[in-house]
Amino acid sequence: MPKDSGIGASSKRREDVRFLTGNGNYTDDININGQTYAHFIRSDVAHGTINSINTAAAEAMDGVIKVFTAADFAAAGGIPCGWQITDRDGNAMQEPKHPILAEGKVRHVGDPIAVVVAETLEAARDAAEAVEIDIDELPAVIDMKAALDDGATKVHDDLTSNLCFDWGFVEENREAVDAAFAEAAHVTSLDLVNNRLVANPMEPRVAIGDYNRSDDEYTLYTTSQNPHVIRLLMGAFVLSIPEHKLRVVAPDVGGGFGSKIYHYAEEAFCTFAAKVLNRPVKWTSTRAEAFVSDAHGRDHVTKIELALDADNKFTAIRTETYANMGAYLSTFAPAIPTWLHGTLMAGNYTTPLIYVNVKAVFTNTVPVDAYRGAGRPEATFQLERVIDKAARELGVDPAELRRQNFIKPDQFPYATPVAVEYDTGDYDATLDKVLELGDYNGFAARAAESAANGKLRGIGLANYIEACGIAPSNLVGQLGARAGLYESAKVRVNATGSISVFTGSHSHGQGHETTFAQVVADMIGLPEDQIDIVHGDTSKVPMGMGTYGSRSLAVGGSAMVRATEKIINKAKKIAAHLMEAAEDDIELKDGQFSVAGTDKSVAWGDVTLAAYVPHNYPLEDIEPGLEETAFYDPANFTYPSGSYLCEVEVDPDTGTVDVVAFTAADDFGNVINPMIVEGQVQGGLAQGIGQALRESAVYDDNGQLLSGSFMDYAMPRADDLPNLVVDHSSCTPCTHNPLGVKGCGEAGAIGSPPAVVNAVLDALNRAGHKVDHIDMPVSPARVWAAMNS
Amino acid sequence: MATITMTVNGSEVSAEAEGRTLLSQYLREGLGMTGTHVGCDTSQCGACVVHVNGQAVKSCTMFAAEAAGAEVTTVEGMANADGSLGVIQQAFQDHHGLQCGFCTPGMVMSAAALLKDNPKPTEAEIRDYLEGNICRCTGYQNIVRAIMAASGQEVPGAIAAE
Ligand code: FES
Ligand code: FES
């Protein structure tokens, strides 16, 4: 029986009511009395020297308040990077300055040069035309491998080259890996590209800076996934504003997918300018600006090799990856191709030896950082593609080759050769599930039906493992994180028993207001509507590391559980006093405290009232009031896993690929709200299928972004996608967090691209086309070319 | 600047607008009705869909002046008279047809226009009709289910909320 409330129930989302009636409060919906409007003038060349900027004519125009350039920010710091990588030689990565506005040089199309602030947006835009900027264009560095050639133009003159770092992992394994390859019975190798993507949350970024002269306090309203992180980065590193004088508010946020994690120049600009002008300053990104100023995702070029012994057991993996950093280091950029990618190269398999080499490269393109999955999709894609190719070369069933190499349920906890320890999992269970739900055995009949319609049908499988939660702090600190990665929660019980939970996690589509309330309601036995979830405001929530890496429930939810446990412990003490019983005998069920073995009981509301009206209260033992805070720093990452099965039909005349069936079987550990989890997977699958078949951020040799609007960047539409079959009945609960949850936000985007590409290649090979690989997006033109080469 | 008057969700309203002011801007900035969203600058995303004289229109493609005197319905006008969710809105909540909510106003308005013309659309017809509305969060499946449910049809395989 499905539950009708609490943990495990598909409770309706409470946030929906405001969104469905037009009452959401997104950042652009906020307007502050006296606000001014900022318009950013951005570089239209990829690389150039700024000779001069003349703002006089623009500043003389009606309604213009001021035109800002880099000169106004001489005292400010650059936009900081939050993660430092140490390269193979033990040296720190090369870390260029990332100014708020371009200093002397522009380094990518979209790099901000000047900002017009005016009384209206129209006036600001009109005046931007009158700002004279003289730039000498320089050769653009676009191709990563060419960027590393001797004598290549440098993106940053003060760095020794365009190489940010050369990372080896695990460096000590290198020789053993090479030896395993020398001894291998079979080696499969594959060159592939993980295509560059634009996250494109439907809400463009917005920043509003406000400054209050009477108390010297700044407020920034911003479309962020982690307002506390922005407060820390911007306050401490860029503008030197102490945290107690800086409030960052991220209200309703219209999707993020990673792109709203980072601290962006526009946030610092609006906050800074608000003080200079003593008026609020608002900036709303257009979609065109978003394409050239939001951090992009992926963009890896990789060679992967897989060694197998005579029994088809995987014996070693070796990879070499070029990872595009873009023109500057975005907040978490260096962590993505390294610790979020190299550590996942074992996948679901027992491969004993792995060596990953990553060269991170500066180019004259938009900075690249995490996008849904972040490093883990890149790892999964390589692995699941090379395994599929190996199966074809060896003439074995791709499902069986995978199964044969699985880490088996009795091997957990399992330490991989790439420094992580999987706590729990059952990869056979999700594989069995997906083969059953997707009717793997019935494929031949469906293929025959497709053939009768003149179509080539293919089936593709992929497994994935991901590391979620992004923690613990002591570990990520050793790996180069410049922050702790815990989460906080404050639980405030009001006198009449209702509860406000203040969480450092941020919801921008994930439905935390509903899910988190279900957990607390379940723990105490209250109706869900007695619990409110507050997030997204540094002045309300004690601290927060925010939402990314599928960490909200596993880390933020765990903090909330810990705080609620403290509440329950204290409430039991009060109840014991009220019922004149021993504290150990007090039980809490359905919002009622009772004394074990007696019929004595007292209601939740009576206890909470006593906490605030302590007439009859153990004042000598405990303080009045009922409010607790907890910080939770997990012991390990969590490791969701799953198996995905995709079926496609290829039109042999046009190369068009149609996804006709997609089945996902995931193991997320315990699930709080199945409806929301299903929705998260569906959304992730849509993005992964989009990456595989449609999406691509393409630069020309001059560094112009060719797919810079929704006309050219092919976002998946409703009729591009099939009905997605999603199952999460396989469940091996996480062993180290109190809810046994693992995280579900990124899985769909991680596991689906290789399943789709494998399916296309299966269709072509079954039809007799010997095609080893097609790069994403697997467009009709590429498929047609592969069939006809 | 000129004063533009129209009927929005049954009430006559006026606000100042320039000739170049878009209907989406007029609603959001002129009237402070921020339910209608703007997600692009190339008429591609559909977050801005409203009804003008009964027709679904991307309000970013129309000047406010062109809608002078018209009857405009926005997402703020889709609830029942008592404030409870209308049939389409309720179906979106029941079938988890929204996540971040940003595309949602446009989706609800497009769904309403579809169901007016085609009260019992097939799944394929729904997917085809939503061609002009981009959602980055949901993968569309639950939006399709919600529209099926709002039209009173069976919704296969859905986990409806309780
Ligand atoms: S804002 Fe109107 S279509 Fe995108
Ligand atoms: S719900 Fe976020 S874009 Fe559709």
UniProtKB/TrEMBL annotation, chain A:
SMART domains documented for this protein: Ald_Xan_dh_C
UniProt domain Aldehyde oxidase/xanthine dehydrogenase a/b hammerhead: residue ranges: 21-139
Matches recorded under InterPro entries:
Ald_Oxase/Xan_DH_a/b, Ald_Oxase/Xan_DH_a/b_sf, Ald_Oxase/xanthine_DH-like, AldOxase/xan_DH_MoCoBD1, AldOxase/xan_DH_MoCoBD2, AldOxase/xan_DH_Mopterin-bd_sf
Keywords (alphabetical) are:
Molybdenum, Oxidoreductase
Keyword Oxidoreductase listed = yes
Question: What Pfam families does UniProt report for this protein, alphabetically?
Answer: Ald_Xan_dh_C, MoCoBD_1, MoCoBD_2
Instruction: Give GO terms: molecular function aspect only.
Output: iron ion binding; oxidoreductase activity
The source's superkingdom equals Bacteria
Q: What name appears for this protein in its UniProt entry?
A: Carbon monoxide dehydrogenase
Q: Could you tell me which species this protein originates from?
A: Actibacterium mucosum KCTC 23349
UniProtKB/TrEMBL annotation, chain B:
Which terms are listed as keywords in the entry?
Answer: 2Fe-2S, Iron, Iron-sulfur, Metal-binding, Oxidoreductase
The keyword Mitochondrion belongs to this UniProt entry's keyword annotation: no
Q: Does the keyword Iron apply?
A: yes
One matching Pfam family is: Fer2
Residue intervals of the 2Fe-2S ferredoxin-type domain:
2-78
Gene3D superfamilies per the UniProt record, alphabetical: 3.10.20.30, [2Fe-2S]-binding domain (1.10.150.120)
Query: What SUPFAM superfamilies does this protein's entry cite?
Result: 2Fe-2S ferredoxin-like, CO dehydrogenase ISP C-domain like
- Gene Ontology molecular function, alphabetical: 2 iron, 2 sulfur cluster binding; metal ion binding; oxidoreductase activity
PANTHER family found in the cross-reference section = OXIDOREDUCTASE WITH IRON-SULFUR SUBUNIT
In Swiss-Prot or TrEMBL terms, this protein is called Carbon monoxide dehydrogenase
Q: Which organism is it from?
A: Actibacterium mucosum KCTC 23349
